[in-house]
Design brief:
Elements lengths: L4 H13 L5 E4 L1 H11 L11 E5 L6 H14 L7 E5 L3 H9 L10 H5 L9 E5 L2 E5 L11 E2 L8 H14 L4 E2 L14
Parallel strand pairs: 2-3, 6-7
Antiparallel strand pairs: 1-2, 1-4, 4-5
């Protein structure tokens, strides 16, 4: 995952430049780097953006906007898009955007646990000279070519949209269908 120069640079800069205690580089940029390696491509090919998430109990727009501005400044010299969002604010807007409630969170990793695809439910951060990984479904899925839905939140349309894009860019992937009703979970076995 760190063969992607942009991910490595984001981790380095974010660990000392953002002043956040609970943050992660997450999701697509990590799994997609792995998919690129499997396909024999450049590590950053097809990656649209790099997502940073963090947790701050201050859910005001002003507090998050300040972090967004600091992040934009920190990465302004890079030819990539780095997006950052406070996971404590997600329950405030999620229902309006996706039609389902988003339970409150107490840590940034709670957001990772709810990503619609288990393969991309991964986060990494730097702490001094070490890397810490949060992968609630394990790392095997990140390295798998079979995409597995995560019905923690009932967002089948979000999963399907992501799968369609990913399979266009990484055609070696296959995808398990979203379960037919809440409470039923697909398994890669």
């Amino acid at each position: 995952m760190l063969t992607n120069r942009w991910s490595a640079l984001i981790l380095e800069r974010a660990s000392c430049g953002l002043g956040l205690a609970d943050w992660w580089l997450t999701s697509g940029c990590l799994a997609q780097t792995v998919w690129n390696r499997v396909a024999g491509r450049e590590p950053d090919r097809g990656i649209l953006d790099y997502d940073l998430i963090y947790f701050d109990p201050d859910t005001s727009w002003e507090a998050e906007d300040e972090v967004i501005r600091r992040t934009a400044d920190l990465f302004s010299d890079l030819p990539i898009t780095v997006q950052i969002r406070n996971q404590a604010r997600v329950p405030l807007w999620y229902r309006a955007k996706f039609g389902v409630p988003y339970p409150p969170v107490s840590a940034a990793s709670d957001g990772i646990d709810r990503f619609p695809c288990r393969n991309t439910a991964i986060g990494i951060r730097s702490d001094a000279d070490d890397h810490i990984v949060h992968a609630p479904f394990g790392l095997d899925l990140t390295f798998s070519d079979t995409l597995v839905p995560n019905p923690e939140l009932w967002v089948p349309d979000v999963y399907q949209a992501k799968v369609r894009r990913w399979m266009t860019v990484w055609p070696h992937l296959t995808a398990l269908p979203w379960p037919t009703r809440p409470g039923i979970r697909n398994s890669p076995d």
